[in-house]
Amino acid sequence: MADDDFGTNLEPPEDYDPFGISKPIPRVEPTGPIEPLLDAAIHPVDASTEPHVKIPYWDRPKQPRDWYWFLGRLGSGLIILGLLMFLFVGYQLWGTGIEEAQSQNRLEDTFAELVASVDSSAEPSPDTTIPDVSTTSVAPTTAEPGPTDTREPIAIVEGDPVAIIELPTIGVKKFVVAGVQTADLKKGPGHYPDTPFPGELGNAAIAGHRTTYGEPFRQLDELELGDVIEVTDLFGREFVYRVTGTQIVGPSDSWVVATTDPTRAVLTLTTCHPEFSARQRLIVSAELDTSISTPVDRPAAVYPSKDSSTLVTTTIPEPTSTVSPASSTTIADTTLAPTTTVPIITDIEVEADVFENGWFSDGAAWPHVLVWIALELLVVWGAWRVAKRFRNRLIGAAVGFVPFLVVLYFVFQNVNRLLPPNL
């Protein structure tokens, strides 16, 4: 535009915007008061930007032993106690089963050795003995057959195997041990020493755990009338019983294992009822099937301490003499039989049921429990010293882990002796 045109063109340029109408209006952001940002105590201007360094556990200052420290230790102790109880339940359910399985394996070997010793020592005994006489005339003699089984009973002690019991209906096959004490029933079902052996006339009684230690009689309540119970003794004789009934009795009703009819061969199985309780007893009764098995009057085993009270010796009367009419010489016409030992059933008090024992019934377990607990604490202390020596808790845990579990197993084993046998 020329200088002489000033004042003649009064139109503003197109991009002229004196009030900024064409520009966007800026959004106001709330920032809050600015005073806290200027406070040096809250936001120091010279704060270090270096990363935070974690203080090692062994260099941390000790916490004051106040109320909060006590609550923290109490909570840690309860957590550890809960974990130990959880492990103890696992030992009860599975650890005792492993112990029973190992005992059954040892009983199998012992049973085979006893059977082999019986077979090797068995020698045929003569049924008759004819005197050596020289005469001109001998009267005819007739020999009566002697007993078919002349083997002597095996002397056993409580804890030894005496038979094999099979319950096909519930899939049970176990070696039966002599005795019904706690240590005996940990190995398997136990025979009441004051009752006849299976196969004999009278009431042969066997007890077994329903829970823990292999739980051989866990499903005993599932047996029905007519179900088969097979028992094999040390002589290899097999006896077949058939279930005749079941009942629930009190814990002190020992009459169920007593012999009431000495002319019948019956079998009684006992266990605790209900499960995990000793409040009652579950009783299964069975009778020998005489169409398959024949009762025996000579047991395969005998308790040495009971020989004098339960066994008597019977002999055949003295031989008679006859005179032959054709000769004046007297000839002994005799029939001799070997001396036999026959068990006699007597009315004696039945041994107490081990399931009647309650809490802390085994007082002899206390010293063992205390010793193993002290040893466990020693293992923990040693692992802690190793961790402190290397300033690494993982190293201490790795060193003490296996010894801790091994000693803990024996702690549980002895603590279990203080509990009722039915648990």
**Residue windows where pLDDT falls under 50 for at least 5 positions:** 124-147, 307-348
Give the radius of gyration: 44 Å
Q: How would you sum up the global shape?
A: elongated
Number of helices: 5
Strand content: 15-25%
Distance from N terminus to C terminus (CA atoms, Å) equals: 115 Å
CATH C-level class of the domain at 111-121 and 154-311 and 341-356: Mainly Beta
Spatial strand sequence of the major β-sheet = 2-3-4-5-8-9-7-6
Strand elements, count: 14
Structural class: alpha+beta
- What's the CATH H-level homologous superfamily of the domain at 111-121 and 154-311 and 341-356? Sortase
- Please name the CATH topology of the domain at 111-121 and 154-311 and 341-356: Sortase, Chain: A
**Biggest sheet: strands, sense, closure?**
8 strands, mixed, barrel
What's the CATH architecture name of the domain at 111-121 and 154-311 and 341-356? Beta Barrel
**What is the average of the pLDDT values?**
79
The percentage helix is 25-40%
Following the backbone from N to C, one meets helices and strands in this order, namely HEEEHEEEEEEEHEEEEHH
Give the oligomer, counting copies of the same chain as homo and different chains as hetero.
Answer: single chain
Explain what you see.
The protein is an alpha+beta fold and 423 residues long. Among the domains are: 111-121 and 154-311 and 341-356, Sortase (Sortase, Chain: A), CATH 2.40.260.10; 365-418. The protein is built from five helices and 14 strands. The protein has helices at 67-121, 182-185, 307-310, 365-390, 393-415; strands spanning 154-155, 161-167, 172-178, 190-191, 202-207, 228-233, 238-249, 265-273, 280-288, 301-302, 311-314, 321-323, 330-332, 340-343. The strands form four sheets. It has an eight-stranded mixed beta barrel with strand order 2-3-4-5-8-9-7-6. Helix 4 (365-390) runs antiparallel to helix 5. The radius of gyration is 44 Å and the shape is elongated.
